[in-house]
Here is the input.
Amino acid sequence: MKQVCVVLAEGFEEIEGLTVVDLLRRAGISVTTASVSGHQKVTGSHNISVIADALFEDVDFSEMDMMVLPGGMPGTKNLKAHSGVASQLNHMISQGKEIAAICAAPSVLGSLGLLKGKQACCYPGFEDQLLGADVIYEPVAKSAQVITSRGMGTAIPFGLALVERLTDQETADKLAASVIYQAL
Here is the structure.
């Protein structure tokens, strides 16, 4: 079974984080939510608190197939400030594993040079932080080892793209139909 870590920081965008968790779990993918806040309770950018499954430092990333960063403010700034996040993203890429980010969070990948030569998208106004990327304005950008997306309104297609990458198109299509999702 594929395993994914969704990293939660204080001020994360709740829909971006939790939609991904929900869709991945519906697809039968094991998901661990990990807090970088030093405690399992994490409060999102719209004052919704969730209890993460684990603390970031307690996650065995060698078991993970993908690491996902939700956006939001100040969540993205908190992810960028956490040295363990940067270290783990670089390690995941070096191991041939997948990383993904939505909204402002692709800027974290850009700051680490992980978007060089890849298509990427983000929340409007963060394009200049996607260093080395071929910036596109589609809801989701899929490149080798990296998937990015634009924001809360693209959380479902983003989650489905992750499901497709980790399983197959048929699984993603069946999941989309089961949640009554229709691309516009």
The radius of gyration is 15 Å.
